[in-house]
Amino acid sequence: MKGEKFHIKSPILGFDNVSEVEFAEVDDGALGFLSLQGQDVELLLINPYKVREYSFEVPVAIQTLLDIHKNSKVKVFCVFVREKESEIRINFLAPIILNDDNKTLAQVVLNAKEYPNFGVAESIKNYIKE
């Protein structure tokens, strides 16, 4: 799977020294992968809007860092972890914002008090309708 290089403008949690990633989208934008340059790590991403109702304010500082404007092509993904065969947990409190126009990204850490409906390790089962 071929990805595009993105420059990190604000560190990804736990990877402060990584300045560039390769991002690839799959499954019609529902899933994504971040390959961290210089690390033997790949983060699994999910588009939160395809899973649940999801809305937050992108801080002005992040908008400035990523040069986000009204018509910018922005994507939002959340990191998820597959714990067992059927258990997937999503971190809705630390979305990754990608500006597709200039290939930059940043991770935003949301305040749990301001976003009480978002968790750090929410089960995807909470959002799957059977």
Summarize the structure.
The protein has 130 residues and is mainly β. It is built from 1 helix and 9 strands, in the order ββββαβββββ. The chain has one helix at residues 60-65; strands at residues 4-10, 20-26, 31-36, 42-46, 74-82, 88-90, 96-99, 104-107, 122-123.
SSE order and pairing:
Blueprint: E1 4-10, E2 20-26, E3 31-36, E4 42-46, H1 60-65, E5 74-82, E6 88-90, E7 96-99, E8 104-107, E9 122-123
Parallel strand pairs: 1-8
Antiparallel strand pairs: 1-2, 2-3, 3-4, 4-5, 5-6, 5-7, 6-9, 7-8
Write up what this structure looks like.
This protein is about 5% helix and about 35% strand. The protein has 1 helix and 9 strands; from the N terminus they run ββββαβββββ. The chain is globular, with a radius of gyration of 14 Å. The N and C termini lie far apart (about 30 Å). The mean pLDDT is about 90.
Proportion of residues in extended strands: 35-45%
What's the count of strands? 9
The SS-based structural class is mainly beta
List the total number of helices. Answer: 1
Unreliably modeled segments = none
Spell out the helices and strands N to C.
EEEEHEEEEE
Q: For the report, how would you describe the main beta sheet? A: 7 strands, mixed, barrel
Strand order of the largest sheet: 1-2-3-4-5-7-8
Terminus-to-terminus distance: 31 Å
Radius of gyration: 14 Å
Indicate the percent of residues in helices: under 10%
Shape: globular
The overall pLDDT, averaged over residues, is: 90
